[in-house]
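Escalated from tier 1: flavin-adenine dinucleotide holo job.
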Amino acid sequence: MKTFSYHSPKDVKEASKLASTSSAFLAGGMTSIPSMKLGMATYKDVIDLKKIKKLSGIKVSSKAVTIGATTKHAEVAASKEVQKAIPALAKLAGNIGDAQVRNKGTIGGSISNNDPSACYPSACMALNAVIHTSDRKIEASKFFKGMFETALKKGEIVEAVEFEIPEKADYQKHPNPASRYAIVGVFVAKHKKEVNVAVTGAKSCVYIDKDLSKKLSSDFSSSVIEGIELDDSEMNSDMHASAEYRANLVSLYAKKAVEAC
Ligand SMILES: Cc1cc2nc3c(=O)[nH]c(=O)nc-3n(C[C@H](O)[C@H](O)[C@H](O)COP(=O)(O)OP(=O)(O)OC[C@H]3O[C@@H](n4cnc5c(N)ncnc54)[C@H](O)[C@@H]3O)c2cc1C
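Tier 2 regenerated the structure:
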């Protein structure tokens, strides 16, 4: 690992001021530290966000669950309030990686990194999340731009993620047997006016399957998914699963999620 200057600001303003083209924010370090150790990323300044109190914690209202950026996956999984308001979100957090990852990894780090196989981006998309940053509020549909790419500008800090509480929801994933990242993960959320089916792991970036969402919006029953053949032309194909297999997993897990709602 190359040498760098470590900073531990106490507030968001100070953290933003320290940011430059050769800096990185540090949350749980679950992605950033291995990348630095392997020489895949080098920074002049590492800005630790953990001491910024404002960034941590969970707030639940009648309409939304708002989770601070440095809140760890284990905290979301164990939160009685999240379990009550959006049980699928607590379940998703409780099935991320292993115990160490869940006790270090954060929601802000997960969505800022936007790994194509990460679980939280699918919850953000299905639950019409709004990403609160140091500069603005961004709808999830405009936040996730592409593989490891988001709408965040240099120095912009994710402060919290606000999830709309749905009528029903469930998350199903086919985990990579080693890392537990999603080979395919499907988050189904039934809201008052529409159903959102968000998919992670299948393509280069999380997306809403419009066809499945439309069918389930008019009839929220797993039978409407029966026999659907999804287009696999843009799906990932690798040693873990072919594009054809991934397409099959998407409809299978969408069906399972609807049945579990
Ligand atoms: C072995 C292993 C298994 C995993 N399994 C899963 C899984 O099953 N499902 C899943 O979804 N994820 C999985 N992950 C990812 C994990 O959940 C972490 O969320 C992810 O690695 C990001 O780590 P972090 O939160 O510690 O952020 P860091 O590693 O500290 O940061 C990641 C990136 O985000 C930036 N960043 C961090 N916080 C902010 C912020 N508030 N604002 C702006 N930028 C920010 C950093 O600068 C950096 O570029 C796994 C990771 C590992 C190592």
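The chain has a mean pLDDT of 96.
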